């Protein structure tokens, strides 16, 4: 029986653009539903891969020193466990200092009221109008802010510090967060052990002509994700330690809590010192203007060292994201994928910016239009 020389039935049907459109729409919808069902798994894998990526330079350095990969991974896990233990102790200390801080703030409002009273009196004597109720309005707003903090945050911290507290018991009984952390840690161990082979397998999934571009793009991913995360961790640690030591030398109460606050919120550039300066200035009020001026000097120095030296040096190979962009990325990531989304949102935005600068802005589409 002779073989037909014309196109088969499938090729004939595939010629129709409507058929191709329907097939592509159905495939896109199927992929969308599939990815939507495994979103949490993908986020866990992304966090595990990020941990392995951050640890890989240390593992490579150990291998060059003739330390086997498995022993290197065990060493990394020991470091990770030590950091978790240190962080746990620090969290307990900081939580206790936060409780003391929030309990001391209402008393400092009275000092603020006296200070505002003297300032408004001095300005009124010199003819500045509209200051009749300024002191009362500012004091009432500050008291309401402190009361809200005390009512909402202090009970949570007290329950967290109490081993029989409801927060602790609920976390242990549910076990969801602990299970997710263990899963991410287990995935990161497997990825660290076979990091090179996993990367090779991922690369071989692409057609051979595409692989040079994929390698080039993976370099951008390394710059945006790894470089940004490492850089921000170093900068946040510096801000927290600098503020803590500076306030401790000045004799400001709860110095560790304020330093921790400044370091954590420094994920949004320049925001950490501003947030940390508010309670520090209130606590320095009873000691007079000199102590308050020295507190301002500590935070200004931290801000200037970060902005003029650390950020340009550490993040010079990544991206300079605007604070508004960082804040929006964190809010959107947290809204979509929770805590893990907030962690991955800023590196993802940094990667998008690098991709635009590398491929889109130099393209003819950008310069001449589509």
Automatic annotation (TrEMBL):
The keyword Cell membrane applies. GO terms for biological process: transmembrane transport. One of its GO terms (cellular component) is plasma membrane. It is found in: Cell membrane. It comes from the Bacteria. Signal peptide: none annotated. Its main location: membrane. The chain crosses the membrane at residues 12-32, 38-59, 71-99, 171-193, 233-261, 267-285, 292-314, 326-352. Belongs to the autoinducer-2 exporter (AI-2E) (TC 2.A.86) family. This is Permease.
């Amino acid at each position: 029986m002779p073989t037909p020389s014309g196109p088969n039935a499938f090729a004939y049907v595939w010629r129709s653009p409507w058929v191709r459109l329907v097939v592509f729409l159905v495939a896109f919808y199927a992929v969308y539903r599939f990815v939507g069902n495994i979103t949490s798994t993908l986020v866990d894998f992304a966090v595990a891969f990020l941990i392995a990526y951050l640890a890989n330079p240390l593992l490579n350095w150990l291998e060059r020193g003739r330390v086997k990969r498995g022993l290197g991974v065990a060493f990394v896990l020991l470091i990770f466990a030590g950091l978790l233990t240190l962080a746990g102790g620090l969290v307990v200390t900081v939580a206790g200092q936060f409780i003391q801080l929030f309990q001391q703030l209402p008393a400092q409002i009275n000092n603020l009221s006296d200070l505002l009273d003297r300032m408004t009196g001095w300005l009124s004597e010199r003819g500045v109008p509209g200051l009749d109720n300024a002191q009362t309005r500012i004091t009432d707003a500050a008291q309401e802010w402190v009361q809200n903090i005390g009512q909402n945050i202090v009970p949570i911290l007290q329950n967290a510090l109490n081993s029989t507290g409801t927060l602790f018991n609920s976390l242990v009984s549910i076990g969801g967060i602990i299970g997710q952390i263990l899963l991410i840690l287990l995935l990161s161990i497997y990825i660290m052990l076979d990091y090179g082979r996993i990367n090779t397998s991922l690369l071989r999934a692409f057609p051979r002509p595409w692989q040079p571009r994929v390698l080039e793009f993976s370099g951008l991913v390394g710059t945006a994700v790894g470089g940004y995360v490492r850089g921000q961790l170093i900068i946040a640690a510096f801000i927290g330690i600098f503020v803590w030591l500076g306030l401790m030398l000045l004799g400001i109460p709860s110095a560790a809590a304020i330093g921790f606050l400044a370091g954590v919120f420094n994920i949004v550039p320049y925001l950490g010192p501003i947030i940390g300066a508010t309670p520090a200035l209130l606590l320095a009020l009873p000691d007079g203007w000199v102590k308050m001026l020295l507190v301002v000097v500590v935070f200004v120095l931290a801000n200037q060292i970060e902005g003029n030296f650390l950020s340009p040096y550490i993040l010079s190979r990544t991206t300079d994201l605007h604070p508004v962009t960082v804040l929006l990325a964190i809010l959107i990531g947290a809204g979509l994928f929770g805590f893990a989304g907030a962690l991955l949102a800023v590196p993802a935005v940094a990667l998008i910016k690098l991709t635009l600068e590398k491929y889109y802005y130099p393209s003819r589409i950008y310069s001449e239009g589509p």
